Amino acid sequence: MHNKSTHFKQIDPLFHPRSIAVVGESSSGKIGPGFLEAHINQGFSGNLYAINPKGQVKNYETYPTLAEVPGPVDHVVISVRAEFLKQVIEDCVKKKVRSAAMFTSGFREWEGEKGAEKEAEILAMAQKGGLRLIGPNCMGFYCPDSGLSYRADMPTIKEGKISIISQSGGVAMTPVYAAAEKGIGFAKSISYGNEVDLGAVDFLLYLAEDPDTQVICMYIEGTRQGEALRNAMKKAASAKPLLVIKGGRTDSGSRAVVSHTGAMAGSHRMWEAVCRQTGAMLVDDIGEMLDVAKLALFSKKPAGRRMGIVSVSGGLGVMFTDLFTLNGFEVPKFNESLRNDLKQWVDLPGTSIRNPLDMATAFFSMGTHPQLFARLGQADNLDILVVVLAMEYLGSGNMPGGEVTNYFLHVLADSFDKVKKPLVVIFPETTKAKDRLDMERFLISRGYPVFSDVARCAKALNHVLDHSPQEA
Amino acid sequence: MHNKSTHFKQIDPLFHPRSIAVVGESSSGKIGPGFLEAHINQGFSGNLYAINPKGQVKNYETYPTLAEVPGPVDHVVISVRAEFLKQVIEDCVKKKVRSAAMFTSGFREWEGEKGAEKEAEILAMAQKGGLRLIGPNCMGFYCPDSGLSYRADMPTIKEGKISIISQSGGVAMTPVYAAAEKGIGFAKSISYGNEVDLGAVDFLLYLAEDPDTQVICMYIEGTRQGEALRNAMKKAASAKPLLVIKGGRTDSGSRAVVSHTGAMAGSHRMWEAVCRQTGAMLVDDIGEMLDVAKLALFSKKPAGRRMGIVSVSGGLGVMFTDLFTLNGFEVPKFNESLRNDLKQWVDLPGTSIRNPLDMATAFFSMGTHPQLFARLGQADNLDILVVVLAMEYLGSGNMPGGEVTNYFLHVLADSFDKVKKPLVVIFPETTKAKDRLDMERFLISRGYPVFSDVARCAKALNHVLDHSPQEA
C-alpha cells in the first residue's frame, strides 16, 4: 500500500466496506436486482442492513431510516424511485456514509438537461458531506473477494484477474456471466452509469494500480472529461492490457446512447485515435473482449505470426489454414528435421506431416503425444501452436478414445505443458455442445485459451500481436 | 419422377438400396467408423450383411465373401486396407453390385501419381461391370430417410432439408452434427473423397433435382472437371441456395489440400469468380454455412437493410446497433406513429422507443407482447426485425420471469408469429449456456433463426441480401 497513489488509497476502501445498507428493497419486491440477496450470496461478511420505512424486510436486519441503524454504514445501495433519491442522499450525508451506488434511474438519460440539473443538486449535497457517489442509473460494485455484488445470481469465482468498468449496467454484468461459464473470474465489475461523481477516469486510474486486476475492460458510451479520460487510459494501458468497447460508434448507435446513458457519443474516428494513442485495444463486442482477455491471461505474446496447426480432421485443418492465412498468419511448411521426427509418431494413410499436421487416427495414439508436442514446441520456424479439436472425434463411443475422453483430455493438457511456446486450442461447436463446454472449462482450468471460432481466434491474436503498450 | 432427368433417375436409386454389405469390419475392430452399427442406428430396413473372411461379426449376418451372400446386394461399403481394395471391387462386379462407397484410403492423396494410377485401374474394373464408385478416401452416404449412414453416432433427425456434398469426410459430417445440436436435420450428406467415378458434378446435379433438398452445401478442395463443375454449380444454384466452402484458397491451405485429398486447389480468385458467375454463395467456414442455411430455411429474404432492433439490455442494444450499422445495415429511427403506439407498452425510465427499442423491465410485461410485436411488424420503414435476448435476463430466479422462462419463451414465439416480416433472434452465449441451448432449440423449432454472434448474423444476412440467383 505504501507504493500506491493517494487516489488509489481513496478509492480502494470503497471496495472494502465494513457495513452496507440497501435502501428501497422490500420482501415482496420481485422487481429489481435483489441487492440484499446479492451480497449474501457473494459472502459479504460485514453488517448488512435493509432500510424500509414500510416495515421489516424478511430475513434482513431492517430499519425504517438510515439514521436508525445503530452502527456506522460505509456503503449504501440505493434502489428507490427517482423522486425519493434526494432524501436518501441527505440521509446518507447525515449518517456520514462513505459511498453510495445509485441504481435509481430517471435522470440525464431520461429527461436530458432537466435530469442533469437534478444530478447536479445531488452531487452538491453529497460533496458537502464527503459522500462519494456512483451512478445514478448504475448497478454499482461487484467484487467477489470482498463480497460486493449487484445481482443475486452473480458468479462467485474468487481471485478472478479481469476487471471491467462500464457505463452500462448490462455490459458490466454480461461479460462476468459469460466468463464464469468458462470458469474464468472477474476481480471487479464497476457499473458507473451517469457518473455524476466517480466515473470512468477514477476507476481506470484505480484499476491501473489494483494488484488484483491483470486485465482491464471498459465499456464506454461517452464522457464529459475528454482529456482526463485520455490520460487515464494511457496510464491504465501502460500498466496492463486495456480493452475498450465504444458504444455509439455509429450515428444510429450514437442516437441509442443518448437515451441509454444520456452521454454524447463522440465520433468513431476520434475514439479509434484515442485508443491507438493511449495503447488501449478497441474491440467490437463482449465476445472479442473476453477473447483478448483470455489470451492476455493464459498466453505469452507470440514472437510472430508463424503458426503450426495440429488437426485431427484433414478438412478442418485445410479450412483453418486458409482462415488463419487470410487473417494475416503464416502456416509455414515444417522443416525437414521436424518432419523426420514426426514420422516416428504420425505415418499412416490419411495423415500428413507438412503443416497442418493432419493426425487423423494417429490422434488417438495417446502414448506418444507428450514427445510429439514437445518436439513441435521446439520447431524454430513456428511462433505459436494451434491445436484443432472437435467433439465428433473426441466423444464418440465408437471411435478410439470414446470411453476415455476425460483421460484423453488430461493426456492432451499434459502434452501441451511440454510446449514451450504459446498454444491455443480451436474447439468448434459441433455435436454434444454441453459436454464440449465441460471440456473447454477443463482446458481453460489447465491454462489454455480455447476458441470455438477461428475468425475470432485470429482477431484476438491480431490484437495481441499488433499491440504495443505506451510508456506511462 | 416423370419430370426428372435421366441423371436423377440413375443416381436416386443409389440412395435407396434394398440391401447393403459392409466389407472389412470385425467385431473386435474399434478402429473405423462402425458402418454396420451406423446403418442399424439409422434404421436401415433392408438386408444388411457383414463380409469378413476371418469369421462371424457379432450381431450381424456374416459371410466370408460377397459371392456367398444369398440374395442380391445393391450397395457395398468398403472398409479394407488399400492393398485389398482391387479384390473387393472384383467381387462387387461379380455380385452385380450397383454402387460401392470406398472408405479405404491410401491412393492419390497418399501416393500422388502412383495412387492415381491405382484408382484408374479400379475404375476400369468397375465400369466394365456397371458398378458406380464413391471415393476412395471417403465416408460415403448419409441419408436418414432411407437409413444410410457412415458413423454410429450420426444424428437421426428425419425430414431435414439441407444436403451437403463434401470432398472431405470430416467436413461432410461436422455440419450434420452441428446442425443436429440445434435440432436442424440434413436430408443427405455425401462424402465423395477422391471422386474416381461419381463426384461433385454428379451429386450437385442430383441434389439440384432432389425434392428432399432445399439448401445445398458443398465443401470442395479441387476438381478435375472445371467446366462441368461450373455448369453443375450454375444449375444447382438456380434451383436452390448453393453454399460453397473452398478448401485450399491460400497457398498454405492449398499445400494442405494436396496431402488431404490429392486435388489441385486452383486459385482463390478463380473460385470467387466461379461462385459469383454461377450464383453460388462462397462462405468461409462451417459456422457461416449453417448460418446462411438457417436463414434460407427459416426466413423470407428481407426486402432491404432497414432493421428494427428490440433489446432487453440498453448496452447490448447500443453495441448491436453499432455492429449492424458497421456491417451495412440501417437502424432508422422509428417514425412518429410507431413511437406513439409503442408508448402504450413501453414507457418507463430505462426504456427507449427510438430504435433500438430498449425494453428494459417492460420486457417482462408479457401480456402486451403479441400486440407490441404485431405493431412493430407493421412499421413501413423496417425490412427486418432483430430481437436481442440474453440469458442473464431470462433465466434468473430473482428477475421477473425467472420461474416462468419456458412460458415466457412460448409467449415470445407466439408474439414473433404476429410479425409479418423476417425476424431473427440474437441470443449471445453468456450465462447458463446449457439452458440457453435448449431455448435456442425451442426457438428454432418454432421457425426462428437464432444467432449467438451479431457479426455472424450480419454476415449471413448480407449473403442472403447480396445474392441474386442466375437463370439456369
The average pLDDT value of chain A, as a whole number, equals: 91
- Percentage of helical residues of chain A? 25-40%
Oligomer: homodimer
Taken from the alpha-carbon principal axes, the silhouette of chain A is elongated
Tally of alpha and pi helices of chain A: 18
Helix/strand-derived category of chain A reads: alpha/beta
- Strand order in space, largest sheet of chain A: 3-2-1-4-5-6
Radius of gyration of chain A: 26 Å
Largest interface: A-B, 91 and 91 residues
Largest sheet of chain A: 6 strands, parallel
Strand content of chain A: 15-25%
C-alpha end-to-end distance of chain A: 20 Å
Low-confidence stretches of chain A: 396-402
Number of strands of chain A: 18
What report would you give on this structure?
- The structure is a homodimer.
- Residues about 395-400 of chain A have low confidence and may be disordered.
- By secondary structure, chain A is α/β, with parallel strands linked by helices.
- In chain A, helix 11 packs across helix 18 (about 455-465).
- Chain A is about 40% helix and about 15% strand.
- In chain A, helix 2 links the parallel strand 1 and strand 2 (about 45-50).
- The first copy, chain A, contains 18 helices and 18 strands.
- Chain A starts with 5 loop residues before the first helix and ends in a 6-residue tail after the last helix.
- The interface between A and B is large, with 91 and 91 residues.
